[in-house]
Hints:
Elements: E1 5-9, E2 21-25, E3 30-39, E4 42-55, E5 58-70, H1 78-94, E6 98-104, E7 117-127, E8 130-141, E9 146-155, H2 159-172, E10 174-175
Antiparallel strand pairs: 1-2, 2-10, 3-4, 4-5, 5-9, 6-7, 7-8, 8-9
Amino acid sequence: MRVLVAFTLFICFNIQAACNFDVVFTTIPETKQQKVEISSDVQLLIAQRIAQKTINGSVVATNVTCQYLKGKSYTNSESEWQAYLDNAIKALGKSGANELEVSIIGSEDKVYRGELSSLEYQFNADFAGNRQVIKNLAVLDIENNSLISFSVSGSQSEESEISDEFERVISSFKLNN
């Protein structure tokens, strides 16, 4: 029997709720929050939920993150999206990824068909001999000045299950505006 767990993700650091959306997890996720001081008047408030499940002995992780930018507005510019992707690539390198392959998903193959601006991409990387597939979607909610990212990852041997979970979690995403 599969239990679906629905969560509304909010960021509340003594400010308005900025990341107000629903997403459904199949296991109870771990929750983390972080505040990053970008400058004296700009902060990045991050809320993250990570759920894991084991499939055929391999862990598949679902990671949903909301980044609310306080004191500055997201622009939806090409350079902003490029900087976002560059930062994701750098973070993978710092976490020990080798032989990193990056694929930008074309419009005809995208899972997300919503109206918000988005970037869908996939990483294939080797972590100390463990070949990983990481499917990603970043969605920009300009109205709430929030960037919402979805990532599903696991061993390359479970790529079909990773794709199914990615499609499932994206289809469960709903803004609560």
